[in-house]
Amino acid sequence: MSAAPLLDTAALRAAGRAPATPFRIRLADDRLVQIERLLRVLPGKRIVGAGTLEGEAALIKLFIAPGSARHWQREVDGLAALQDAALPTPAVLTAAPLAGEGHAVLTAFLAAADPLSALWQRSPADDARLALLAPALALLRRAHAAGLVQSDLHLGNFLASDGQLWMIDGDAVERPQAPGAPLSGAAATANLALLLAQFTPQWDEQAARCLHTYLAAGDGPAVALPQLLHEIERQRAARLADFLAKSGRECTLFQVRRSATRFSAVLRDQADALAPLLADPDAAIAGGRLLKDGRTCTVAQVEIAGRARVVKRYNLKHLGHALSRCWRHTRAWQSWREGHRLRFLGIATPVPLALLEARLGPLRGRAWLVTEHCPGVDLLTHLDPQREPPPAEARALRELFAALHRARISHGDLKATNLLWHDGEVVVIDLDAMQQHDSAASHARAWARDRARLLRNWPAGSALWRWLEANLPPA
Asked: Protein kinase domain spans which residues (predicted)?
């Protein structure tokens, strides 16, 4: 069998997001590292993969950007700080410059390791998730007592292997206090909130139990629940703003393409499958099953790689309509962003897969949105106006409107046909007019309109109308 190609940092930078594996790279001391499988790639900056060093299995982190020594040194120092604090982290096999330029850190490879994020997704019940989170909270308490914070704290930076939870990613480990001193209460609160802000707002009800588990893990900084909840809300808002900004630019999650005549954004893991559709979305609509054909929009169900998708084209009714909209974000853009906002907040809506806009320089024209297809039935059909909703639907309706109200989100066109019952959830669709409000007063006015529009779907005084009137957040 021929040896894997020997590359250097220039070749790896040129390879972008998809360097071919396996490949070898030489350390400055002439030893050869081989990467068999990619785990993460930051194009032109960093490559993380599984491979070997002189036959020994290793997790390999390559720093390939010009001037990468600073990040490499942070990784080395962070891993050393975790080890000095007796926190479980994989042993460093070597940390060395690469031949020519760039740097590498190799750590012991954890066999059959599961990121805590994957275990979390497989355990939907709250009690099961709290049990998974408990050892991570205990490790975080120990880190804080040792004066350490993890500035990129998320479940993916904890690995479960052979009954042990491990902390990884030394690049994000910092020591803001003097060596040997524990974190301040404010710093510990902020770092714990960074972890808990990863979860949906509905999970904030478990914050008190998480804090109890964290505090029970040993001595350390004082953290109080009111300050923790405030910090969770602040950090979640910052994460949401960052995530929505990413939905419109090239990054790990999204593939974005711009030219003088078009703009497209697509979930990166869907880009190849959706490429033919995005090349000619009108042909896809013409070949699909027409769901709606109106003046303002045309909607069709299509099949892509054996999976049902929905394509929605936002039409321009006439020249005046086109001129009035050409300087503004398209309705497809609005739906794209609001769909991702709802998903981030744990509110059910079909996954937005792709956005396409026809442009002429800065001017916007027609636009298309591609989403997953939800096979649910709309609430106008599903609910009997002469009866209160069944228990499952009642619970889902209360949870949905509580979540929207808590986030100050208004829908803008709250017809019952824009709410689908599917798989135990009320799924929200048609997000063209959705808005998250900055002020309580603005949201209150919009919610009053939304509430009135929803109630108009059913006869005033009917059993369902009375139930909604009693259970919806007040106007």
From this structure: 285-475
289 within 8 A of 301, measured Cβ to Cβ: yes
What is the residue extent of each domain of the chain? 6-108, 114-246, 254-372, 377-471
Give residue 282's identity as a one-letter amino acid code: D
Architecture of the 6-108 domain:
2-Layer Sandwich (3.30)
Q: Is the pTM of this model over 0.85?
A: yes
User: Is the Cα torsion angle 321, 289, 350, 114 positive or negative in sign?
Assistant: negative
**254-372 under CATH 3.50.50.60, yes or no:** no
Sign (positive or negative) of CA dihedral 280, 281, 284, 286: negative
Q: What is the pLDDT of residues 35-56, one digit of tens each?
A: 999 999 999 999 999 999 988 9
Please write the tens of the pLDDT for every residue from 152-200.
999 999 999 988 999 999 999 999 888 878 999 999 999 999 999 999 9
Q: What are residue 90's phi and psi, to 5 degrees?
A: -55, 145
CATH topology of domain 377-471: Transferase(Phosphotransferase); domain 1 (1.10.510)
90-109 tens-digit pLDDT: 999 999 999 989 999 999 99
User: 284 to each of 267, 295, 300, 306, 356, how far by Cα in Å?
Assistant: 19, 19, 8, 14, 13
